[in-house]
């Protein structure tokens, strides 16, 4: 077949046009993806598993951090309601059994505790220096905004704090940075404490509707009889996975509520209340492994 320069030029022009159109389409798609709102969106029965790694390093007189102390815990968020109501299950302190906390997540990432009677509290749940309230989401496509939040790691009268959030990257998994001003208070031992330089960088997955990673860094100080001690603190949250769950949503919700009821009754030594909650647990058909293990230890 003879070489036809006119035909070759036409084919090259067509290929170039197709490539430009494809690039434009990809660009438009990425632009729409970047505008996808950041909203917490959990489904009843869904299980979201995280790993929380904390590191404390003492700071010497030369301002150089010393040997760090590490702690790791796996936490589960189990969605038990259609409005982002979840049961948070985390390891207890020391050799204690797992703990359950009922939380209500708003679409913008703010979190409030509620008890088995559905009474809602103002704060969330602190796990060391970590609190899901440190992961606020933008109202829209804002690049920076001011935020008022409740930080449960602080004393009750200092938990309301004002912060500033900046969007660091856009796209389907945008990243943000929260900064808080220095916070100090007098503790129950009449000693001065402070948290300063707190920054939290976190990434939100818009397609999954959850935060997929976060890193909190700050400096914590406490006054002791032998002087003032300072620590560099870092906490990392990592998404391990998400599963749909096998249990009926209503049964799973009642299992979580009854487990929380039994935990509270046991702590308060309310025997009648405990027996009622244990009866509900015995008759509940839900099989969620971690909740069932916690319920079994409460019965024991």
DSSP helical segment count: 4
Number of domains: 2
Helix content: 10-25%
- Oligomeric state as shown: single chain
CATH fourth-tier homologous superfamily of the largest domain: Lipovitellin, beta-sheet shell regions, chain A
CA radius of gyration? 25 Å
Q: What is the CATH architecture descriptor of the largest domain?
A: Roll
Overall SS class? alpha+beta
Name the shape in a single word: globular
For the report, how would you describe the main beta sheet?
Answer: 12 strands, antiparallel
- Low-pLDDT regions: 26-34
Could you please describe the fold and organization of this structure?
The protein is of the alpha+beta class and 300 residues long. It has two domains: 47-243, Lipovitellin, beta-sheet shell regions, chain A (Lipovitellin-phosvitin complex, beta-sheet shell regions), CATH 2.30.230.10; 249-299. It contains four helices and 14 strands. The chain has helices at 5-34, 249-268, 271-283, 289-299; strands at 47-58, 69-79, 85-90, 99-105, 111-113, 126-127, 130-131, 144-150, 160-169, 175-179, 183-186, 192-205, 210-224, 227-243. Strands 1, 2, 3, 4, 5, 8, 9, 10, 11, 12, 13 and 14 form a twelve-stranded antiparallel sheet that branches. It has a two-stranded antiparallel ribbon with strand order 6-7. Strand 2 (69-79) and strand 3 (85-90) form a beta hairpin. Helix 2 packs antiparallel against helix 3 (271-283) and helix 2 runs parallel beside helix 4 (289-299). The longest helix is centred in the first third of the chain and has 30 residues, at 5-34. It is globular. The termini are far apart.
